[in-house]
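Sample A.
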Amino acid sequence: MKQLAIIGMGPRGLYALERLLLELSKQQLEIGLHIFDATHCPGTGTVWDMSQPDSNWINITERALVGIERRQAISYAGCTIPEFPSYHDWCNYDQGFYAPDTFPPRQKIGHYLNARYMSIAKALEHLKTFQSYNEEIIDLKPKGERLDIIGNDKQWVCDALVLTVGHQSTVLSNQLESWTSHVAKYHTPQLFDATYPITQLERLKNEMEITVGIRGFGLAMIDVMRYLTINNFGNFKVIDPSTFETVYYKTQAQGLKIVPFSLDGLPLVPKPLNEAIDVKYQPTDEELEHFKTEIEAVSQSDSAVSHLDFLMRPIAQISARVYLELKDEAQLHHLNRSELESVVIHWLKHEDYKHHLLLDHKTEVYQQIKTYTGMALGDTLVSLDYCIGQVWRHCQPTLYKAFSHAKVDESIIKEVIALDERSKRYSYGPPIESMQQVLALVDADVLNLDYVNNPKITLTPKGWNLENNAETTISCSAMVNSVLDAPQLLKVNTPLIKNLLEDDLIQPIHSALGIETTSEGFVKTPHKDDDLAIAVLGRLAKGSVIGVDAILECFGPRIETWAKAQVKRLSSN
């Protein structure tokens, strides 16, 4: 009997298991299934861990989670795996067109994912060919046509394997390396080189007097900010439910100061309040089909391409049409469609491009947040960059599908990913309430945005001195790194990936990207005529695929393609 291992049982591993079982049932094929997961709650991974605090929110609307569909019942090896409801049915989702979108805590999604996995495990619990191990896998070794799976003190053998391990830690940057050495020398400063688990920061949140620096100004920064400030001394209160306008109130005095900073100091941009506002940025079906055709004409062709016009041009066409149709809700202008398209392309090429329809980056950060929040609420005239960002979000699923496994030069793949990453300030933006909390904390003199734009940092025996362009300084005795490591394969420092690299079992598609895989998810190596029996789905394959960070991508067609191909391989061997 063939043996297959799934290493990593987060949401992507969960869907891989489901689709595999479905394809096996179609072929009436039974195999040995081995599930390896190092966490305590299978199905969730670390991102959706059920034990994390409620202050960690998702940044995708519950409305958009319609993409997590029901699982049909599966008959496998004499067992019946019951159907499992879609996320919307599971949580009794019911929201009106004009009602504000909801953004629940991440642990709520975790409870759904874990329940979905456990329904499989329970159905197969008496099946000797289904085994689950709470183990970290540190190495894989070819053994003839099979693979040895090596844990810390155990070993297994399999015929095929899929890696769905998600985020992996990487070697520390030069800056973090120097900070680590500094803290080891002086002991007094407190450094947290990763954000999660966020409960590690518990000892900071109720300090009477402390200034905490946060390296990064993105979604993880908001999690840190919220966790630290919902404490024994204060909390948030929404004073206007229609706009989520918020105040931070203190029940007793506390000298907590939070000082975030990043390389560009640009704030996150909140998503639209509700479906009624969001639908205005929605491309038509015809526009999305044209967008897909334009991308695929390049990505699936062997013709050389040296620029991103194939991506920017259709985005500009959709954005210009949307902006014109906003009419009185948009900034006043007299540009026609082609002129608007030109502005969009200029901005996509150069983020610092200036135009009166684009919100000026040099505007005070606090005011930028207020202005973007007003746009999200439908209360402020919409800038063109806000419009582009929301259009990009709606185009992302099509882009991710059409450009994955592109045949273009690796440098073009890197540029597409870089542009998509730049868009995420808008397209992966947080709920309005999160940005209202940022404003509330500034108003309460808890959050300090004076150093947000690339401050000069000096290490002192007591911690970190931050200096801004106005030459004012602030001292931090604690520092939290909230910058998430990029999936750059050559910098990953977890034992499994390092060992696979050293043994030439995997290779990056580009020095700054992830593992090179086939369109079916199987690893490519330079030394073998045939692909290995190792598949990689998800974040570690960034470059071969794009769009690896969205939860909806965990339940997408890439996993279905892999499952069909994997069962075909198992059946033919």
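Sample B, a different protein:
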Amino acid sequence: MTNNLQYKLFDDSQYTRYTDAKVQKRDGRLVNFDMHKISNAIKKAIIAQTGSFDEYGSYVLDKTMLYIDSAIDHDVQMGTTTFTIEELQNIVEAHLHLVDANIGNCYKTYRLKRDEIRQKNRDVNHQVGAIERGDETVNNENANKDANVFNTNRDKTAGQVAKVIGLQMLPPHVANAHEKGDIHFHDLDYSPHLPLTNCCLIDFEEMLKNGFRIGNADVDSPKSIGTATAQIAQIIANVASNQYGGCSADRIDEILSPYAELNYKKNLKKISDISYVFNELASVSTARNQNRFNEFLEQKATEWTIKDIYDAVQALEYEINTLFSSQGQTPFTTLGFGLGTGKWEREIQKAILKIRILGLGAEKRTAIFPKLVFTLKRGINLEKEDPNYDIKMLALECATKRMYPDVLSYDKIVELTGSFKVPMGCRSFLQGWKDQDGNEVNAGRMNLGVVTLNLPRIALESEGDFTKFWNILEERLEICHDALLYRVERAKQAIPKNAPILYKYGAFGKRLSDNDEVDEVFKNKRATVSLGYIGLYEVATVFFGGEWEENQTAKNFTLKVLEKLYQKTVEWGNMHGYHFSVYSTPSESLTDRFCRMDKEKFGTVTNITDKDYYTNSFHYDVRKNPTPFEKLDFEKDYPKFASGGFIHYCEYPVLQQNPKALEAVWDFAYDKVGYLGTNTPIDKCYECGFEGDFLPTAKGFKCPNCNNRNPATCDVVKRTCGYLGNPQMRPMVKGRHKEIKSRVKHMR
């Protein structure tokens, strides 16, 4: 067993006689008295002051601990059974000063600093001021939010205020765990200040069929595919403004097909009325000619309809990319397609891919949204003899040039999640669910939020002791349980008229009246709520060293960790009636936040905090550069326990001249993983024509060929989380290029 920590805890096993004593935390919880935590805090103060833990440091620790033990023993003998955190800190500070005043002052300074941080987290003026101060942890939190824009700046200002209010609303022990970095309560800038939901699969089919209302407008069912896509764009904008996560359209090709058929019928009638057709008709004198004439009509109507489809899909692409929700950003939107085999479904699929390949505007830039997810299915498009194999070829071309589409393996998704559907947003998956009539339901369901557990911290705190690791994990999971339950209870406090598009007009499937409880669309496991996690690589590194991927014992340990999370979510789901799921968190800023906080707490630890980021979810350590096949073989075992949210990525060089290489990976992955994304360089310089991977610098990304870094004449697109992002829209500050370089790499 390898321990990468720079120091070991002081051997204070002799201090075990306070088994009945309790410590009252700042959040009011009572926990068992643990002398190890006191000795660890003193040791960190010694190292902070002297730079090491040598013989003198051991002397200071020994002598101080003897004083403290005597003081606590006296209090216990006098009948004290519970100590507050402040009382213990005062005891430590007083006796550490007796032994070494400088180290005592260091301990006091750290304590005051932590108190100051806690106060600032609850200070509205300080939090709002972070935007004006240019705090990059605030202004650069989201790769697709430009803090320079007025409406985005306004949303961020409101969000900073909401964070302060939210922390005050949370159960004290949950807020405390979030502030300390034990957990992360996601999206505090929106929830719990408001009872918002997270991400969803919009029920577009129901809304388009039965109509809906936005603002003062009652919208009828569309009579053409162009109107249908226009309505979809408006629905997306309204839904995105009434929740805080991504929204998806499942099977968009099949949803739009009936409206393409309406266009075809109108085109057929229109072309029959054109005068030159009657001239053609005049030459028809036989049944054979009549058939040829009918074929002519159908051919022309089909051609016109294909043009209508293309125009409608192109309009949808532009509308989504030019929308701004109330959050000050383009809605995080996903379109799923690929299973339809009918004439119009095929044309819709082809239009989606051709338009994405073409690009946006005169310079043909890569569209950031919507995220495209293409479904592979054996018998439909996977193999050469399948009817839609030609569309798979088009999808491969698109992925090599624009990174999207990501691909879903139909059979594996059904195996992992219980039914087929695209993810909500970038990677959050609903689990199979049937209504009271036994009908499978996916569209119209949603997620109520995420709380992520800092797994590497638990491993660091355990110092390579498996028993201690499992004990700490059990304790932290109970905090997550309380946090997730709070998310559910807060979301249930909404009323239908708070978000009519969601609850009254079909986006969430059921249409509720003003007097209905919104829990009608949440309960009985219709909604999910997610337990996130980060850093399985770092967890195993604490116990087995940084090169553990080929060690089956180490991998089995990481699988047991995920299985433990999965078992807990099943237990909670059965207890409360909501689907608690394990979610492989994609947060582009959280991998940095947890590591930054743990580096402050534990120092620089090799292969853990020294990287300045934690490895996302269950991914293979990116520094080792595995082949796509090695990476997928390694990662394929994890989603079984994390089916509430997962995705696999593979790194490639420029692929535009070799789409067959990407097809080989897609085919290899089909029976192994459910959801696969492509990372390939697609940056483009419009001054010299270079296409490939731009270089991050302190002044922004630059073309490696001509050094151009002007955003107006280059297109830089990176995948920094589940979605693509344009990092050039974010201001570069000191060291920013290093952060982007590491983020772009490790978030893949």
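Observation for Sample B: Residues 1-10, 729-748 have pLDDT under 50 and may be disordered.
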